[in-house]
Every structure is written in C-alpha cells, then in structure tokens.
Write a structure and sequence with these properties.
By secondary structure, the protein is an alpha/beta fold.
Amino acid sequence: MSSVAELTPKQALKQFFGFDHFKGLQERVIDSVLAGEDTFVIMPTGGGKSLCYQLPALMSEGTAIVVSPLIALMKNQVDAMRGFSEQDGIAHFINSSLNKSEIMQVKSDIQNGHCKLLYVAPESLNKDENVEFFKGVKISFVAIDEAHCISEWGHDFRPEYRRLRPIIEQIADVPIMALTATATPKVQQDIQKNLGMMKAKVYKASFNRPNLYYEVRVKNNIGKQIIQYIKANSGKSGIIYCLSRRKTEEIAELLQVNGIKALPYHAGMDSAQRNRVQDQFLMQDVDVICATIAFGMGIDKPDVRFVIHHDIPKSLESYYQETGRAGRDGGEGVCIAFYSPKDIEKLEKFLHGKPVAEQEIGMLLLQEVIAYAETAMSRRQYLLHYFGEEWDPVLGEGNGMDDNSRNPKERIEGMEYVKTLLQCIDSFKELHKAAFICRVVCGIKTSEITTYKGHTSEFFGVGKDEGEKFWNAILRQMYVRGLVVKEIETYGVLKITPVGKAFLKSPSSFPVVKEQEIGEVDDDELIIPKQGGGAVDEVLFGMLKELRQKLSKEKGVPPYVIMQDPAMEEMCTQYPITLDELAQIGGVGKGKAQKFGQAFVELIGKYTKENDIERPMDFVVKSAGHKSTHKVQIIQNIDKRIPLPDIARGLGKSMTELIDELEAIGNSGTKLNIQYFIDEELDDEQQEEIMEYFMQSTSDSIREAETYFDGDYEEEQLRLMRIRFMSEVAH
C-alpha cells in the first residue's frame, strides 16, 4: 500500500473511506486545505462537510483540531472515524465528558503521532493548559465546524466562538477552515471577518435538498396528527423537535404509551444518558427521538425519514439545519412543521430582557419564520431565497416537493398592489420596515405611525379593505422575487432594488398567491386526549348524553362533572365496555370511571352487542395526558399544608406551572385538599360564589368564568377553585 504522502486525494478517499468519487465540491475543498489555504465551506447538512476536513487530516502531518459545539456529534464522528481505521487512537475528542485519565490518554496519542483528528469544544480550546499543550505538538490545521455560531446573526450564536482566532494564533500559524450548513450572506461575512479570513477560498454548495418534502400544518390535535403519521410510517426513523425539555418528555411518553419506540433527548440529561439515547437511535433500537430545538443533536444518521417540528423554531437557519437531518442518504425525507401564532408569542417572550440589539436581531429572524409558515408560495423557493439562492419552482430540482406546490393556492393579479407598496416605500425614503409600510397602507394608527407622520401620507388607508395580512403576503412575494430587500444592518428596513425601480417605471403583470389563514389553537389542545380513528357514532352519542343528563340530576352536579363531550365522543369511536377500558378514554381516568363509569360501560356494552359492532379498541390513541412528574412530592407537601408558592419554588416552577401539575393530578382521579391555601386567598363568601358558579355552569372553562365574573377574580384564583370543585364533586 502506498504511503499517505504519495496518495492523491482520490486515492486516499478510496483507501480510507472506500469511495470511488467525491461528492459535489468536496475535492476542490480538500485540495484547498492541502494547499495550506484558509478555506470557507458552506454546504448543507447531508452534503458531506465532515469529509472535507477528515480526509486532509488523514493525509497531513500532525493532528488537525476540529472545533465543534456538539458533544453528541464529536462522539458520533470519532466512532465513525475509528470504524475506518485499525487504530482507535486515530481520532479523539476532548470535552467536559472526559475524566483526567482519559484526557491523558488523548494527549499521549497526539504526542505519539497516532491521533490525526482531535475534536474539541470551544470551551476546552480556551483552557490555558490545553493551549500550552497544543503549542508543543504538530498541528496540521484548525477546522471550525458549525461556524455560524460565531455570528450574532447566526441561529446559534455562542460568544466563546468569537474568541477562537486569537487562541488559534497562540497555538500555531496554520490554515483555518470554517464550515457551516447554514449561512445567509450576512452570516458568511460576519464569520470571515471575525476569523480574519476575508481572503479565504469560499466554496458554497447549493442549499437545495431535492429529496426533502416540506409541509406546514396548523397546530390542532397535534398529538393525534403525529401519532397517525408515525403509525402510517411504522419502523422509520424520525426526530421530533420541541420548544422545551418538558415537552420532549411529554411527547416521548405519549408516543411510548401508543406503542411507538421513542425517547427524549435534551441538554438537561447527563452525558451518559444522552450517549445511551443516541446509541439506541443509531442502532435502531429506538425509532423516534424527541429533542429540544435549543439543543442540536448532531447525530450523523443517514436514514432519518422524517423530521417533525412540534413547535416552530426561532429562525429559518435552525429550521433548515434541523430538517436537513432527514434523508441524508438521498432517500425519503419528510419535514412537517406545526405552526400556531401562540408559538411565536412564546419565542418573543424569550427575547424579553435581552440587549436591545439582540432583541432586534431575534425579532427579524422570527419574522422570517412567520413569513415562511404563512406563505402560500413554494416553500422551497422561499427557503432557498433566504439563503441567497434563486430557484425556479417550475423547472428546479425538487419542484412539487412541498405542500403549497402540491396544492396550489388561488392566484390573483397583483400589479396594482405591488405598485402601491413600492410607491409607499419610496415616499418614506426607504427608511422603514415591512410592518410600518403595511400599517400605513391599511390605515392603522400606532405611535410609530404618528411619530413619522404616516397618518398624513397619501397612502394612509388606501388598502384598509384588504387587511394587514394581505399586504404582508404581497410584500413577502415581492421580497422573494427581488423587488425589495431587507437591509440587515438596520434590522429589516426595506430598500427598493433595481428590479423594483424598473417595475415602478414600467409596471407589468405580477401574479400573486392568495395567502392561507392560520388559526389560533388553545394551549390545552397541545397535549391531546386519546382519539379514535373512526367517525363518531351519533346514535350512541345521543344515548350517552341522555344518560349523562339523567346521572347529572340524580347526583345533583353539572353534566360536565359527570363526563365531558370530548370523552363521550371518544367513547363513540372506541366503545369501551369495561371500567379499565373506560379509564383509558381521554378525560376520564380511574377515579371518574369508578365513580360514574358503570352506567356508561353497561349502556355501551348493550349497544355494541345489539348492533353487532366490532370495537376498534386496538386503535385507541392512548394519552400520556398532562401527567404530573412530581405527583408524590406535591401531595406530600399539600398534606403538610405548605403554601403553594413555596411548593412551586421548591420544584423550580412558577405558580402557573404548579397549577398545571395540580390539575393533572386532579384529572388523574386524585383528590387534593388545597382548602388551607384558598382560605388565604378568598373569603367564605367569595368561595361560595365561585363554587355556586361551577355547580350551575354547563362548562368548566376558565375563560367563561372570567367573563361571567367580569374581572372580579384572577385566573389563578378561578383555577384553584375549579381544582377544589372537581376534587369535591367529580371524584
């Protein structure tokens, strides 16, 4: 076998990795690195970025340092590299998961020349003892993976990344390689400037992943939708991204009780847990991973067949990178994002309290996510335009691979609308953002509008009949088709491009797509009760309503205390005939089944027998429900009469989150005696008034109660009283 020094890159590719040909830009990138040039690589997930530094490292004298923020990715790539070599020492990582003896072994392999690739976290590279060590060994080059972390305009900004250049200069005068899967032109410039590599060779691959299918769904009955999709794609690997750690655990549990092999994965788990989950996913012992969008998994698994966003991410960069984990082998990759305006409200709250500039950047990135979710044009075209790449929705590779392209929305002639917006932007000297322009045209008077005299403009209110959403949609399509740009440095101020100016001089036909409406969804719909697969049996539903009314009169309680409509609807698709089966119905639980259930299961049993109905109990979507994770601790504290705010603090929760837990415990059929705390909040007369309301009301809705009492009581007080009422009356 030839020595490494004598091999060409193509020969080395065959010898080390067994491939005959490079993919895309890989060979040109590798030649650049081997020539000692600073090299900047922008290549989408699945495009083969890793090979761009792995192969030159194997071919070069010394050790290549790869800076990576993802511990999971380090372990994964080290394992993969060792799989290609007879020596385990060929690749190592140094991060917080290693103990002192393990770090000593790594350093020994580097000194002996065995280690060609060393993955380090930026925090580890910052340590003085590591810097001193690296000064004394041969370093071939430094590769900075996930380089978008350097830019405050990137989706995963990390301040420690901005200190890399001076640290590298301390270690050695070596070529620098920066790699990222997501970089807008602004982020690219920021990375190069910070790393002092403005003269680097830049290699930018197409961001188009033609095998990926993009879809956005309204966030409604989300648990049922996810389970139905996964069941229809049984055995396929997938990732579900969630906004919070708690949600990853809830969704994983929901999938588990429905017979789906799923596990949560988030930054709150210790490294041993994360490694175990990762290995189970890679070894296909687990089909689905539920992960936080704040924590990149970094798992190099080629056959992920679907990526579902339970919550919309905070930027299109995040979204693109996370969806890019699907179909990395070129096979099927379905990307479904669930969207609700309430997700955006949550993400906006996360920005509060941050420096003003950071808030501005975050809001601008968020506006792009909203635009993507709500657009009716080709999602692929919108996404690629965002990354500075033009793509033809008719002729481009991957056309028809998104929900809007497969189900085209109505098109209308938009020439006059476009002209109005361009003239309005021009009249304000191109000094304002999209929201300002749309509000002027719609005639919406805000403090900003009056400050800048928007209400005196000739364009004020000319488009009020169409509404703000309509004008925003037209602006989005103008942006994608190059008539306007959003100036990044001024956080999204609109500027008219030469194309837009030409249109103003000579307007022409401009077909636009009518946008879709995105509905609101209540928070309590997000963890879905168990649902059946069939249509509701209306005859049985009517019989159950009569039974509920009869029991309501007998027991002297409102009908909703006996059973709520969604639970009875589910009974009319699942036909439970035992109390155990009834307890599996969403919103019932063991306590309610024992207290009120016998009459229901007897009626359903008789009905199914008389009508020869085949029961689909095997197809019940079981619910993990709002299961309390601290049930025993909470009940013990309540028994000790500890004030609820103190219980919440002890659990690291807000009062709202504690009340969520109390409701979950109550809904599971457990009685809670929180009277001692309610007595501190409300006098006897107030309590009696609220109890009387719930006894007479046909609904247990807190919103309806707030309306009825017209602000006399806070939401928290009403929720606590509802818990007391249900404990005393329903259990």
